[in-house]
């Protein structure tokens, strides 16, 4: 019940934040088109022309719509739900850039009133404009990340189908819930990229005693097990109940498709990693840039013993244009930083899912079944061991590349946020060093809060990326231990020799994969040392800024 409630709340949150139009029914003449757009195996896709076109389209709305219509780009506007709009959410996102530009014009016209109310251009112009640029850059990256074939297919598709594909390539509404349709397509793409035909690979399990029959029951019920049950030490109730009512042991060799097994492991990880709590935290974090400037002025006024009306005027302004700009600027900062933060959270979601799946695949080769009694244990001896070794390695390799296109976009989004945070931190550092900033102000608080929040997110991304890479030596260690057990048994036979040879090749393959195709973040191999170094550097800079602004005497 709790899991169902979390899924419902997450779905509702994604619907509120959805920037595309509501789902429309597919037309009858669209049935011959592929159901999933991102079906190309190419990972590193980026088109500067598409990026510039989409960026300026979304930055110049709604005025730019006229130019695109005049240029014959009406179908492009319809496919992106820009024109004609279909609901109030479409209208809202079209009008957002206009609000930013109106605020800039009002600040220039009524500059004296803003100065009199102690409201700077940073709050009205700089922060909303930078937030808008970052968000619209992310939208442009979404479309420019399509391959040439995919982009042309999307441009030439009927509008209804193009809108459906537009929703499928989104992070929030597709990759976070990750429907089975998209997941299966991602598995197929990863199989083609790695040259692993999981359809021809099967996990084999030989039932030859009561213990192996009990373990086979776990194989059959794995689709009904949650991630909490996989990590638990208490057997899943249906396992024991079904075993008691199953009657006599049915001896023989049973098989499960490697594709089916990998799909179930990913489904379990996806249902577990919803990160709705972290989505809520991002919502609170996004409020800081929106509220801190007004609260800062209100606190300063209250400290000078101003009454309630004076405090309110200090926070929001004393005239209508100023009040309008302060309120709208805070709202614009909030919604854009909220969405940007959610895109960053998607990086945590992706790498955590990958780590959990790779960890489960490693645990399939564990030496003792009782270590995780709700997860199947692969037999690694004889003929079935040879087939299981191939299936384990195939699932491991495919998982390394599953969702690579989404990962590339997530990395681009995180890089965009890192650039924005670095620019803001650079302004603060330069101001402190040259003496422009000699005391703490609202801008410094906003920058430090954004940088600290982004640092926490990046550390979590690096942490789960490093945990995913730890599964390379763990799987190799499990295979080595299985070889030792087989050698100690001294059973011999051609099947055992082939199985031992396959284990040797698997260990060699894993060492090559760890060196050439590790889990990486923007081309960098994540390690805990890297994460701690990043936290140390950022923390040192922030302490330096705070110490300078508060005139702390730090002993040498």
Set down the secondary structure blueprint.
Elements: H1 2-17, H2 48-59, H3 64-70, H4 74-79, H5 88-109, H6 111-116, H7 121-144, H8 148-156, H9 159-168, H10 171-175, H11 180-194, E1 202-207, H12 210-221, H13 227-231, H14 237-245, E2 252-257, H15 258-272, H16 276-303, H17 308-316, H18 320-363, H19 382-401, H20 404-434, H21 442-469, H22 471-489, H23 494-516, H24 528-549
Antiparallel strand pairs: 1-2
Transmembrane segments: 54-71, 91-110, 281-300, 320-349, 412-436, 442-463, 530-550
Keywords: Membrane, Transmembrane, Transmembrane helix
Describe what this molecule looks like in 3D.
The protein has 556 residues and is mainly alpha-helical. It has a domain at 38-169. 71% of the residues lie in helices and 2% in strands. The protein has helices at residues 2-17, 48-59, 64-70, 74-79, 88-109, 111-116, 121-144, 148-156, 159-168, 171-175, 180-194, 210-221, 227-231, 237-245, 258-272, 276-303, 308-316, 320-363, 382-401, 404-434, 442-469, 471-489, 494-516, 528-549; strands at residues 202-207, 252-257. The protein has a two-stranded antiparallel ribbon. α15 packs antiparallel against α18 (320-363), α16 (276-303) runs antiparallel to α18 (320-363) and α21 runs antiparallel to α24. The longest helix is centred in the middle third of the chain and has 44 residues, at 320-363. It is elongated.
């Amino acid at each position: 019940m709790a899991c169902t409630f979390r899924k419902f709340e997450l779905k509702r949150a994604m619907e509120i934040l959805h920037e595309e139009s509501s789902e429309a029914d597919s037309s009858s003449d669209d049935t011959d088109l592929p159901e999933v757009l991102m079906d190309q195996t190419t990972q590193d896709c980026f088109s500067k022309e598409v990026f510039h076109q989409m960026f300026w389209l979304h930055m110049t709305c709604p005025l730019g719509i006229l130019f695109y219509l005049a240029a014959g780009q009406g179908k492009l506007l319809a496919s992106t739900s820009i024109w004609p709009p279909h609901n109030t959410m479409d209208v809202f996102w079209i009008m957002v850039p206009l609000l930013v530009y109106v605020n800039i014009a009002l600040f220039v016209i009524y500059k004296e009133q803003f100065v009199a109310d102690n409201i700077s251009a940073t709050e009205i112009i700089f922060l909303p404009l930078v937030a808008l640029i970052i968000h619209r850059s992310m939208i442009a990256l979404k479309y420019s990340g399509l391959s040439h074939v995919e982009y042309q297919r999307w441009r030439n598709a009927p509008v209804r189908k193009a809108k459906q594909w537009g929703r499928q390539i989104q992070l929030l509404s597709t990759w976070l819930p990750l429907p089975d349709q998209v997941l299966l397509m991602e598995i197929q793409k990863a199989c083609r990229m790695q040259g692993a035909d999981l359809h021809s690979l099967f996990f084999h399990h030989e039932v030859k005693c009561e213990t192996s029959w009990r373990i086979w029951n776990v194989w059959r019920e794995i689709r009904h097990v949650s991630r909490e049950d996989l990590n638990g030490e208490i057997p899943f109730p249906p396992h024991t109940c079904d075993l008691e009512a199953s009657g006599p042991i049915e001896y023989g060799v049973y098989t499960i498709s490697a594709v089916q097994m990998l799909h179930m492991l990913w489904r379990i990880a996806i249902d577990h990693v919803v990160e709705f709590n972290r989505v809520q935290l991002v919502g609170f974090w996004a409020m800081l840039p929106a509220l801190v400037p007004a609260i800062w002025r209100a606190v300063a006024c209250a400290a000078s013993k101003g009454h309630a009306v004076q405090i309110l005027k200090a926070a929001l302004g004393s005239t209508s244009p100023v009040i309008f700009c302060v309120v709208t600027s805070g709202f614009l900062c909030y919604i854009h930083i909220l969405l940007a933060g959610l895109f960053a959270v998607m990086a945590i979601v992706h790498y955590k899912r990958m780590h959990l799946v790779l960890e489960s695949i490693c645990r399939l080769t564990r030496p003792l079944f009782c270590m995780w009694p709700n997860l199947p244990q692969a037999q690694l001896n004889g003929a079935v061991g040879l087939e299981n070794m191939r299936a384990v390695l195939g699932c491991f390799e495919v998982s390394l590349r599953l969702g690579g296109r989404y990962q590339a976009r997530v990395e681009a989004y995180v890089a965009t946020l890192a650039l924005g945070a670095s620019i803001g931190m650079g302004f603060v550092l330069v101001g402190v060093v040259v003496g422009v900033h000699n005391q703490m102000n609202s801008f410094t608080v906003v920058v430090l809060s954004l940088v600290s929040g982004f640092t926490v997110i990046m550390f979590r991304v690096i942490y789960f990326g490093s945990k995913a890479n730890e599964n390379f030596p763990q799987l190799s260690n499990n295979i080595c231990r299985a070889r030792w057990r087989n050698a100690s048994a001294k059973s011999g036979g051609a099947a055992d020799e082939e199985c031992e040879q396959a284990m040797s090749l698997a260990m060699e393959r894993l060492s090559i994969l760890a060196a050439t195709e590790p889990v990486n973040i923007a081309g960098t191999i994540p390690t805990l040392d890297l994460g701690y170094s990043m936290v140390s550097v950022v923390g040192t800079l922030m302490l330096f800024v705070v110490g300078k602004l508060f005139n702390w005497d730090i002993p040498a």
